[in-house]
Amino acid sequence: MTTLPDLRFLLSINSENAWSDLLATLMDADQATTRHVLGISGGDPLTVRREVAKSRARNLSDRPDLVIGSGGRTAAVIEVKLLAGLGHEQLERYHAYVDEPDRADCRFVAVSLQHLRLDTGHAAAWDNRTWEELLAPYAASPVSWVATTAAAWLRHIASQVPAVDGATVWNETGALDLFLALRLRSAYLYDNVDVPAGSSASIQEIGSGGLYVAIVDAPVPGTGYTVRWEATEHLPTQDVGKLTDGSGLRGIEVRFFLVQQNVTSSRDFDWDHLHLLWRDHLEAERGIDWRRHPPRKRLAWEVAGVARLQELGSPAFLGYGFGEGQAKLSGEVQFGARFVLPPTTTLAAAADVLSRVARLGSRMAAHPQLPRGARPAALSEAGSAGAEALSEAAVTFPS
């Protein structure tokens, strides 16, 4: 049996360029397997190119990681990911990169590690493949060095990105890089949260700092609002970078937000509706140790919003979140409250809590009173039916 080479010096887990270069080499060397893997028909030779720039309007230039041509057309576009997430509208831009006549038959593939899957639900044309399933056919290649390299590559992945499961403890990271460990934990929550009908789950990078958050959104039908629950490490990104191991992690911060979407300012946020959701759905919940720090606001209308919450009888800590600055960055305003699960929490327990608050969020989104500016006629029957089907039993939490 051939001894497999050790690829750890060739394929750093932090180098997308190195992984892209070797993938391009394998795809070019065994074109029959490449056609099979990507579903490319026809008998014309393939051309495999790396980071092909194509001028676009407004002096922009996109450079997909791999572009594969066949018979004078673009047959496949491959975007390679390891630890980084997707850029803003990155997949949409790479879809537009392909000439319109070629798009229908072009294969758009985003490649990520099995335990760090990408969230590509927003880009329907794209197929999210894992490195593991993409490389497996090459491990059986008739080209001997391709087969040996692919087999060694699969072994390398298993050594670099260990699996986590429900018994994994949040702060027991061993010798694993902390940002990778936390990314794996967020991915587990995303993969294992029970998403109610009418809601959706996603996983997103927080800024560009390396921390990820698992999110469940329950849109308020017919409005520009959603009820959001999310979970991530409580310690700020910059402080995680100062740690030498997982013992300094603070635990899993679970956040509730009423989110106003597609806005450029926090001026028109409906603070009264936030109070209504608190009063009717959260105030009576037992076992939640809410973080009780009063929110700090600088802008006059946000200060007035927090004052309005207290005038209505909400607790002083309600109103935590992200306002004007976030609206400029992402088009969202989000205010609410948060609590923290201990750092010794297992992933199974954390996923259970996130599932339970997601069910609660779905009920909150179905509140009979709508946020200010809503369009009642736009309420969806499907959304209402899904909410009515949810159990009305109280959500309980571990103490």
Short description:
This protein is α+β, with helices and mostly antiparallel strands and 399 residues long. The protein has helices spanning 16-29, 31-38, 90-97, 100-103, 131-135, 144-160, 178-192, 237-240, 271-282, 300-312, 324-330, 347-365, 381-388; strands spanning 46-50, 54-55, 61-62, 66-70, 73-80, 107-112, 126-130, 200-205, 212-219, 225-233, 252-261, 320-322, 332-341. Strand 8 (200-205) and strand 9 form a beta hairpin.
Description:
- There is one protein chain.
- This protein is of the alpha+beta class and 399 residues long.
- The protein has helices at 16-29, 31-38, 90-97, 100-103, 131-135, 144-160, 178-192, 237-240, 271-282, 300-312, 324-330, 347-365, 381-388; strands at 46-50, 54-55, 61-62, 66-70, 73-80, 107-112, 126-130, 200-205, 212-219, 225-233, 252-261, 320-322, 332-341.
- A 6-stranded antiparallel β-sheet has the order 8-9-10-11-13-12.
- Helix 7 (178-192) crosses helix 12.
- The longest helix is centred in the last third of the chain and has 19 residues, at 347-365.
- The chain is globular, with a radius of gyration of 24 Å.
- Mean pLDDT is 88; it is low at 376-396.
Which series of helices and strands comes N to C? HHEEEEEHHEEHHHEEEHEHHEHEHH
Distance between the termini: 55 Å
- Name the overall outline: globular
Output mean pLDDT: 88
Strand content: 15-25%
Helix vs. strand class: alpha+beta
Biggest sheet statistics: 6 strands, antiparallel
What's the alpha carbon Rg, rounded to whole Å? Answer: 24 Å
